[in-house]
Amino acid sequence: MQQHHRRLARSATLILASLLLAGTVRGELCGEPGRDGTAPVGDIINTYFTGPDSQTLTAGTRTFLLARARGATPLMAGDLALLMQVQGAAIVSRNDARYGQVQSQQLHAEWVRIEHLEGSTLRVRGAGTGGGLLYTYVNEPATAETGRRRWQLVRVPQYDSLSLSQDLKPLPWDGFTGGVLALDVRRKLELNGHQLDVSAAGLRGAPAVSLLGALGSPEDWRYTSPSKADRDVAYGHHGSKGEGIAGTPVMLLDEESGYPGGDMARGAPATAGGGGNALDLSHRAFASGGGAGNGRKGQDGLPANGGGKGGGVAPRGLVMGSGGGAAARNKGEGGDGGHGGGLLLVRTSGLLGPGALQLSGGPGSVAGKAGGGGGSGGTLWLDMPAGSLLPVTLALQGGKGSAGGGDGGEGQRLAAGPQPWPGFASWSVSGALAGYQCRPAGHWVSGVIFEDNGAANPGAAFNARQDDGERPLAEVSVSLTDNRGVTLADVSGDAGGISLRLSEAQSRGQPMTLSVALPDNWLLPVIPVVQGVAGRTQGRQVSWALKAQPDRHSGPLQLGLVAMPEWRAPGEQRVSPGGKVVLTFRYRATLTGQVQFLGADHKDSGFLMDRACTGDSERWQSGSSPRWAVTAGEELCVRVPVAVADQPLELTMEALTYPARAPEDFQVPKQQATARISIVR
């Protein structure tokens, strides 16, 4: 019970203590894992905030103002939150076929820890400079040149474990906040047949509005938005565009000016669907709205090419689904666009089904013979241990268009790291780590394996830390074996990462051995310490003796290897008796430092150094054996003139590498390469 109360405590002292006790990924940023217990209160678990309408949060910011809030749970120190730019794309606004193309976008997102809230002033800690934000976030109303930009902050509950007895959903997006369902579960999340449902909770579909006509053109891609006064007398043309990452139409947000150049007509602004064009003065055939997010075009009416265009593909990242376009409308005919799916984020040590993750876009509505386009599917982002199972049903399809409206496009499937789930792309989100990483229920070992050669900066070599330019090493085998011979195995991925996890039940205080098999032709200059345990080598294995304990993380293991230089002899040479041949040996440096070349018997009459391997050589005296400066990645050639009598010969050359700034007890083994000369009779 004492441990349970510690997780739920809200005082600053206990918050600090819990962060220190978490102590599992030293130097990493954590919230207070498990502080929200094991049961949600109601079916809406998140609280949503944003700032004043013209507030910009620059990178490095730690303190800012909040102006709006939705949801029941207030922010407190130790809370985990997601900060995201919901809208922030600039588009081409010309009235031609290029309309809606994205010119730039800053749809950033990051995890932060809440430090303090006093009145409307919030202080956070992030992963940026000085503990501030990594990115810049902008709230700005629409202007004549750009659509509106809007960020929101979402409080994310931190459960110790969670077994659902009801579906969970978000508050829908209202133009300022909402549309996100996010939760952090330190142990397992059991759905028990329930749903995490953000269907049609994202950016909104366009409303259809009855208009009798104006001075529009059949070729319009965008057209002036009708004011409230215009709408009162039905003055205007075409159907409205949907809401998307580049802005919000006037009909959904009267206090702002909508998209640049107007909200009406068939052009699709970024990810949102375009509205149907309407110039049939007899009101017989109206065009339908386009689907959002790589959606389909709406059906044409009159004019013949007036169907709303489908929205563009959403940029990869934490973005909500966008809204479909509305049909052109008159006398009540013409349907609304469907809403986009919301954003669903789940961080847990394991997900148990059955159950469903619902992120579908909403359908367009129909009135008469012209319908709205469907909203696009939302974005799913999962943060779970590598190799986790995904025993749930996923639904990310776009909403159906109605009465000729275009269907919305499918949403995105993203994972924090590589996973065996079909259709998922890796997408990392920086900042505060998941609760299962900060305080794993069982014993967890993680790390990264990389080439520690300094790349272009020799001073960074051999420091057991992955610096800029040092490449990760994939396919390196690691294992964790306990005293009963039970073994967990992994290989490093494309990013060099490894992850081995025992369950809480498996972490009983027993001895275990972490082992890494060094790849052929790779050396380990520095054996790192893991949680105070020194490693040891035996042949091509390096290992650490650990003890399995609940809620314990060993690592992160920073294993820096260096590759053996390449030292190659030429292929077999065929020479007539009494002839001569020049043998070219090639050396490719993997480390910055010096290299020395010698004949194996150290009695050769002389060699020619060809530093650029161009055939231009310089002689040096036999016996002086100079050391040549070399840079990682550089290739040198050594040319050896040989006079041949009438018998086959073998010539062996040696390369001795002396890395710069190498650890005192580290040496690169001497390398030999042998060239063979045969006699042509």
Describe the structure.
There is one protein chain. The chain is mainly beta. The protein is built from four helices and 42 strands. The strands form ten sheets. Strands 3-9-8-5-11-1-4 form a seven-stranded antiparallel beta sheet, with no helix packed on it. Strands 12, 13, 14, 16, 20, 22 and 23 form a seven-stranded parallel beta sheet that branches. A five-stranded antiparallel beta sheet has the order 26-25-28-31-30, with no helix packed on it. It is globular, with a radius of gyration of 32 Å. Residues 1-27 have low confidence and may be disordered.
Order of strands side by side in the largest beta sheet? 3-9-8-5-11-1-4
**Beta-strand content bin:** 25-35%
- Sequence stretches where pLDDT stays below 50 over 5 or more residues: 1-27
Work out the radius of gyration. 32 Å
Based on DSSP secondary structure assignment, what is the total number of beta strands?
42
Determine the N-to-C terminus distance.
Answer: 92 Å
> Fraction of residues in helices?
under 10%
| Total number of helices | 4
Return the average pLDDT rounded to an integer: 89
Provide the structure class: mainly beta
What does the overall shape look like?
globular
Biggest beta-sheet profile:
7 strands, antiparallel
